[in-house]
Amino acid sequence: MAAERGARRLFSTSSLWLYCLLLLLGRPAPGAAAARSGSPQQSAGASIRTFTPFYFLVEPVDTLSVRGSSVILNCSAYSEPSPKIEWKKDGTFLNLVSDDRRQLLPDGSLFISNVVHSKHNKPDEGYYQCVATVDSLGTIVSRTAKLTVAGLPRFTSQPEPSSVYAGNSAILNCEVNADLVPFVRWEQNRQPLLLDDRVIKLPGGTLVISNVTEGDGGLYRCVVESGGPPKYSDEAELKVLPDPEETPNLIFLKQPSSLVRVVGQSAVLPCVASGLPAPTMRWMKNEEALDMEGSERLVLLAGGSLEISDITEDDAGTYFCIADNGNETIEAQAELTVQAQPEFLKQPANIYAHESMDIVFECEVTGKPTPTVKWVKNGDMVIPSDYFKIVKEHNLQVLGLVKSDEGFYQCIAENDVGNAQAGAQLIILEHDVAIPTLPPTSLTSATTDHLAPATTGPLPSAPRDVVASLVSTRFIKLTWRTPASDPHGDNLTYSVFYTKEGIARERVENTSRPGEMQVTIQNLMPATVYIFRVVAQNKHGSGESSAPLRVETQPEVQLPGPAPNIRAYATSPTSITVTWETPLSGNGEIQNYKLYYMEKGTDKEQDVDISSHSYTLNGLKKYTEYSFRVVAYNKHGPGVSTQDVAVRTLSDVPSAAPQNLSLEVRNSKSIMIHWQPPSPATQNGQITGYKIRYRKASRKSDVTETLVTGTQLSQLIEGLDRGTEYNFRVAALTVNGTGPATDWLSTETFESDLDETRVPEVPSSLHVRPLVTSIVVSWTPPENQNIVVRGYAIGYGIGSPHAQTIKVDYKQRYYTIENLDPSSHYVITLKAFNNVGEGIPLYESAVTRPHTDTSEVDLFVINAPYTPVPDPTPMMPPVGVQASILSHDTIRITWADNSLPKHQKITDSRYYTVRWKTNIPANTKYKNANATTLSYLVTGLKPNTLYEFSVMVTKGRRSSTWSMTAHGTTFELVPTSPPKDVTVVSKEGKPRTIIVNWQPPSEANGKITGYIIYYSTDVNAEIHDWVIEPVVGNRLTHQIQELTLDTPYYFKIQARNSKGMGPMSEAVQFRTPKASGSAGKGSRLPDLGSDYKPPMSGSNSPHGSPTSPLDSNMLLVIIVSVGVITIVVVVIIAVFCTRRTTSHQKKKRAACKSVNGSHKYKGNSKDVKPPDLWIHHERLELKPIDKSPDPNPIMTDTPIPRNSQDITPIDNSMDSNIHQRRNSYRGHESEDSMSTLAGRRGMRPKMMMPFDSQPPQQSVRNTPSTDTMPASSSQTCCTDHQDPEGATSSSYLASSQEEDSGQSLPTAHVRPSHPLKSFAVPAIPPPGPTTYDPALPSTPLLSQQALNHHIHSVKTASIGTLGRSRPPMPVVVPSAPEVQETTRMLEDSESSYEPDELTKEMAHLEGLMKDLNAITTA
């Protein structure tokens, strides 16, 4: 009582006592530093200044005062020399010299005597800040403290007369303005009221008396003593009543209200209840009971109020006050919100720097609400500009330091409940003074190269020939040459200093690595003049500066800037209003605006022209998200677009009923209802639940309603009558109301429940159908269908049915047992089961078919007696199942039911089960859904995926088998994942060329039609600034040439299909090599023009290294010479042998010719072929033909390959691969399309090219052709000389479209993807039917020239190998003989050579030798 009475006097003197106490105990306070660095750093040299400790010992705090009292705002700062202290009030310095009420105390504190405060004059109330200055050092400011002066006392509520039963609680209200609550006290019968555990005063002033006794009755009033005369409230009488006759209800006298408190404060949640018997009070937080006894911070006050002391952020939450007196329970709740003053997680650090550097002061703060941060330099606010920027929300970046930037920088964090400050010192050293420490994290990467300590030695001279090689609107690229003092310059680094013309503040940008002599300066202003100079540094320090270079950036087109403050808000379920303001940089009069808007999830953007600053779009879809952006137009055209803003239209009631409603009778008293939500376009909001209505079919008016909340899509309706038909309908709910309901659907409960007290009986039939590796098992259910069947167990095995067991659903009527062995005897058993157990098994056996049996014969049933199908018979399956593709993820399934009447109207309780699956991957399981109509909408499918669908019908306990399947492929969608496994490798021997490889996206959602490769040297550049390389088709590799050496590049890839572009891959970094190397394996020679004729010896060595031209030419001359000599010897032997041929043999051959017209040589081993040449497909060596080691004379009869097996074993996979590669890239890009046949390198066939013995060919169109590869079997007449394989004449067509139509001989492009890799000269097709192989579209690689053209023509063939590309090589093709001469050759070839014929043959050989000489001399 005495302490409270003396509170006013104590307040007036407390400030002086506090001041004296601080003088006695004043010492540095931890955490109060504004620019404290700890211990000063040691000097690295005599000229290096150290950081000076300068910080606040004491800072002012928020203070509450009353009118007429005195106040001290404490402040004390430490520095050597001592700082000068000044004060600011509301941001303005106070003139304390002429102020008689305010004075500065010796330690720097502010003393205010006789605080003045009235309604219209409040000179002392406000925000105060202490400012400390050291002239040679700088200035720091303290946190801001608020001085609040309590106003005149005013009662917002006063005590009222009340009565209370003894033992209950009573409250008396007395509420005053918040700043006077500490000065409120109570009187009883005009005597001061003593407070104790039973009688308390709440923080708002209200008096609470718990467990009232008769002595508590009397007159009460509250008193406010705030410096002036006391102010009294009205008096109110409290009466104490005896126990009542009727028990009063339990009520709250005082309920808790939501509070906001700061960490460290205390909070009282009032809660007082009255009733008989007297209630007990308990508290819960977030639905968990509070443990009052186990916590020192939680106290239950008189009446039941909760006090929480020393609040932490964990105390925030919802508190429940529960009053219980045994008869009834009531509860009330309140929210406690906890705020926190700003605290520093990371304070700024002291920084050494040089002029022109860029630095960053880091500052990381926390608090609740989130604090705002501002920066102060030497006491003055830092205003963001081109050189002072706020980065990463809180950090201060200073660009291009100058000497005047030295001083103290402070980070000031502020929120609703307080503020805090922390600071650091910046010292700028001379350029010849090295920074004494390692680079602190606060130096930017652009300036850290300055930090290496210098040693003595020669410094570099100025860099030479500084030029601006690229000038844009916002960046300039500078290049230069090494200084004359160091012409190599490998170890030199460079700094580029630059500034705006007329601005003294210079910035610096450093090269990224030693030896680099170019820098790109970013973030410049358009149409602005900049001054550049370059300085080289070596290990000894910085050298001379180059002469200043004056460069002006390019001007930008004067287009409008973005419209600020664009906002969009929904005004109805179908309309959105968009507003914006005039662009800050209009660059002339704004003529109009264009508002672009787009529905989320679509790629179609629409626009509307507007002349005002707002527009309302109507007719939008309900509860649909739209994005908006605005572009301003002036006379130059469209300006910069605003950022997209997204907003969703308001929700509405659903506009459609739920889908696919189905009913399933569970037993005689319950029915399960299933449904699907309305289609997304008709939901018009978030579905919050469903309303189910049902009634008996016989009573139309008696409707029962059930609500299902959330996303539940089924409901079991129980308590129904047996054998009764019910109607059901379902409607969807949103927060706006109920949508339309489905049509009434009816079904009937069972008359009696099925029995599950015993196991099911034996299934009525079992049928098996064996295939090669599977057996199809089908069955019918037990005849007694009054017993519950939960499913069927199928056992099978070789000789025993117990090896494997499979369980299937009770609705299923067939199953396919997979992965069996062919020609094996399997025993199969089938048992029905329920919760009691498994029933009696039914056995069958079957033998799987052998591998060679592919026929679809009827059932292999062994010992399978006919089992009649029990009643009721299975229903007929649905027919005419069709799949209609609606979108990339939706297919509508429709069908017909032959068991329905002709109008196909469903009048009974049948339902349909739709199942679907995709075959990729192969083990995909079926998905099922029920429907009660003859269609079903299947959603959630994958794009561009083939699905199969089937339907079955169920009516009561009868079900059909599954229908025939229908198939449908969903539409394509843009790729939803980026290409995978992006790798970049350098091309061997070509360091300026790289090869990008990747894999298709995992979610291509369609056929990939191409890719786009983006690459850039700046990973942070806007995507429209990256270089684009398109790749057509489904290629997975690409070359990029002419890159800069020793430069990091970043690559991204985007896939494209017919629907559009997919997302980009993550950026992949690759640095090009430093120097150029020799061309290695996989390298490609440059295009040297059409006149360039490389030597024949240019083929690669086996290891991929090029062979010297001289050695290769010598080798080829030797090979050709040996070949010519061998040919001459073979011809002489041939002439000698043919003279000895008997006339009988001549006649026999002639007879053969007359019958089948075969061009083959039929004879014995003595027959000798005219000379032919091999052309090896890789070495391009010319060799005389070798005799076959096979003694069979037929195998040596002809030099033409007999069929495709004689050429190369091309299988179907190769054919298809070649067919797919028809349109692969030509010319130098051919090496990018690596063949999948690389594994067949060992199978390099040799193709024979008979030049003189070859008859003329049919004319060949010199265009890309789909001509055929004719093949036919030769007819034989002589049984002793039959050709078992038949001759095949093949012509391989080149798919290249680069052939010159003006030439008589087409250029043959043999691409590396072709498995033959060589020339083929086809023979004349023999008579007989011609077959076509469309898998190998081709053109003759070397065709005969037209008639009367005797001039030899040289054409170039691009000869490649797998994985390797070679320069074009000339191939000399001799002209074809005249038609008459060739015909005569064919006729004479069947008999021996006469002397004149030998002469002609020798003449041809001489011509051939000339051609070979031409090859060697070329």
What does this structure look like?
The chain has 1418 residues and is mainly beta. It contains 9 helices and 93 strands. The strands form 25 sheets. Strands 12, 15, 16, 19, 20 and 21 form a 6-stranded mixed beta sheet that branches. Strands 23, 26, 27, 30, 31 and 34 form a 6-stranded mixed beta sheet that branches. The protein has a 5-stranded mixed beta sheet with strand order 2-10-9-5-6, with no helix packed on it.
Please render the helix and strand layout as text:
Layout: H1 2-5, H2 7-25, E1 54-58, E2 63-66, E3 71-73, E4 76-79, E5 84-89, E6 92-93, E7 102-104, E8 110-112, E9 126-134, E10 138-150, E11 155-157, E12 162-165, E13 170-172, E14 175-176, E15 184-188, E16 191-192, E17 199-201, E18 207-209, E19 218-224, E20 231-232, E21 236-241, E22 251-254, E23 259-262, E24 267-269, E25 272-274, E26 280-285, E27 288-289, E28 298-300, E29 306-308, E30 317-324, E31 329-346, E32 351-354, E33 359-361, E34 364-368, E35 372-377, E36 380-381, E37 388-391, E38 395-398, E39 407-415, E40 418-429, E41 464-471, E42 476-481, E43 493-500, E44 507-510, E45 518-521, E46 529-538, E47 541-545, E48 549-552, E49 567-572, E50 575-579, E51 592-599, E52 606-610, E53 614-617, E54 625-634, E55 637-638, E56 645-648, E57 659-665, E58 671-676, H3 680-683, E59 689-696, E60 704-709, E61 714-717, E62 725-734, E63 737-741, E64 745-748, E65 763-770, E66 775-782, E67 791-798, E68 804-809, E69 814-817, E70 825-833, E71 842-847, E72 879-885, E73 891-896, E74 911-918, E75 927-931, E76 935-938, E77 946-955, ...
Parallel strand pairs: 2-10, 12-21, 23-31, 32-40, 91-92
Antiparallel strand pairs: 1-4, 3-8, 5-6, 5-9, 7-8, 9-10, 11-14, 13-18, 15-16, 15-19, 17-18, 19-20, 19-21, 22-25, 24-29, 26-27, 26-30, 28-29, 30-31, 31-34, 33-38, 35-36, 35-39, 37-38, 39-40, 41-42, 42-45, 43-44, 43-46, 46-47, 46-48, 49-50, 50-53, 51-52, 51-54, 54-55, 54-56, 57-58, 58-61, 59-60, ...
Helix pairs in contact: 4-9
